[in-house]
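Lab notebook, bench 4. Still working through the backlog of constructs that have no structural model yet. Next entry is a single chain of 397 residues. Request: give me the structure tokens for it.
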Amino acid sequence: MAAGPRGAAPPELDKSLSSGGFLAIAIVSIGGPLALAALYVPGLVRDASASAGLVAVIAPLAFAFPLLIWLRYAREIASSGGLFSFVEAAAGRRVALVQAAIWTVSYLLYLVYTTVYVVYDVLPSVLPGVRPYRSTLEVAIPILLALVVIAGRAPAMLVLVVFAVGQLVLVALLAVVAIAHAHPMSSFGTASAAGDIATASGNTALLFVCGSLPFFFGGEVVRPERTIRRGLVAAYVLVAVAVVAAVFPLAANPAFTRADIPGVSLVSVYIGHGAGVAVGVGVAVSIVGVMLVEYLALTRLMHAVRGVGITTASRLVAIPLVLGGPLSLIDPDRFYDDLLKPSLIALWLSQIIVVAVFPLFLRARNALRPQGIVLALGATALMVFGLYSTIRNQVAT
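Model written out:
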């Protein structure tokens, strides 16, 4: 990996990222929202569908533990290092380098295997005619992502803004259709078994974990002290409300939770096939949008840790991403299955480090209070649950 002189500060990034641009990054990162509302959350509430609304409310509240920790770090730290910089401030560079290495493994693997999921699971459920072209798409999508990122921040931001707006429009459509045909307030009660509600709530909360990605753009924001915290909170609340609105009506129609893509099935039944296809394609775009943000975040981390220029970092990350397409064609199912669990295990380990060292960050600033310890314990417990669920094969990506 190319780098500057040892000990030299990395070159400055262009600090012109607007609050609107940061908000778009945050919206796309959290889920993305359409994938959460139409695919992931409905699948996870399947065994607790009678309490779908309650699960959808508990999940973002539970994830508030790590979110508040990230926001507290960000009050003082805004850099391209993101979580790495948080850990470095709390526990020193050696621990931070370990965290960054584990995090990098997780997201590199995610970039490589997620195209398989989009091409072989999501798109064929929406567009059966795409099946003969799956191998072409498996190679083409990573190449297109690499070209967008290598072209520079402006083209990537344009894509992300379009993705963010498009997802919000389709999530709103999904929510309106769902509520218009069923709005059971009993969905916010405990009609399902307590164990099913707890498991579904915990697994759903874990879906918000990519909300940490916007912090890697802290070194490019015009007014980071205001933009980062406000932008992420606004995006988080917006996505959480959208998910609740789209998911709680499913309590009246639990059969939808067993569809390949519940949101597509629901919209197709109540509006028509064309609208359902739009939602389904939007779900695929939502997943690819998260991949794009992850790609960008990896380049920022390389810049912060090793002083690598963003363009060089973009090209380096493109190598495993683009090579992964042809390699996956040998056996797509096995390729996905073999990389999924290691990626998720690395993700939860990297996040455990971030939240577990938070009390050290507070203590160094004479700000350690009981509430800080409670936040660290709650967030660590949630990430440990994620690790446990992954090992036990209870939750996917």
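Notes after review: The CA atoms of residues 53 and 248 lie 4 Å apart. Residues 1-8 have pLDDT under 50 and may be disordered. Flag for follow-up if needed.
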